[in-house]
Amino acid sequence: MAKTPENNNPDQLTAENKEVELLIGRIMQIGVVAAAVVLVIGLILLFVTGKSGYPVGVHPHRFGSIIRGTLQLRPYAVIMTGVFLLILTPVLRVVVSIYAFVKEHDRLYAYITSAVLVILIIAMIIGYYGK
């Protein structure tokens, strides 16, 4: 029997599944640790300066202003960047899962996971423009 993409060796698929699971786990670990480090830096800046880095009642809400504030080491912006990284972590997990399902030729789960990604993106867009 000729080897086709549908007739993959089960041992090879198991090894690939383990690699993908390890990759997903590593993404989650790195994302959470990076977010925690950025959040702690923001909190330290907040406690050291005693100020948010912005006038009372003014806080950055747009992505560009948060990044500019982070580069200027404004505590509130650094904290918001940490929160953004924390939110981004599971989104990256969904993207890697789509790749894994496509690679395994599992169309149903690839479609379902893609729908989840679309819902996440729509929710982020609504959150961004919904104010």
Q: How many discrete structural domains?
A: 1
Low-confidence stretches: 1-5
Cα end-to-end separation:
60 Å
SSE class: mainly alpha
Helix content: over 70%
- Round the Cα radius of gyration to an integer and report it: 20 Å
Q: Please outline the major beta sheet.
A: none
Mean pLDDT across all amino acids: 85
Number of strands: 0
Q: Give the topology string: H per helix, E per strand.
A: HHHH
Shape label? elongated
Assembly annotation: single chain
β-strand amount: under 5%
The count of helical stretches stands at 4
Question: Any overview of this molecule?
Answer:
With 131 residues, this protein is an all-alpha fold. The chain has one domain (20-129). It has four helices and no strands. It has helices spanning 10-49, 63-71, 75-103, 107-129. α1 (10-49) runs antiparallel to α3, α2 (63-71) packs across α3 and α3 packs antiparallel against α4. The protein is elongated and about 60 Å long. Residues 1-5 have low confidence and may be disordered.
Key descriptive features of the protein:
single chain, elongated, mainly alpha, 77% helix
Task: Produce a short descriptive summary.
By secondary structure, this protein is an all-alpha fold. 77% of the residues lie in helices and 0% in strands.
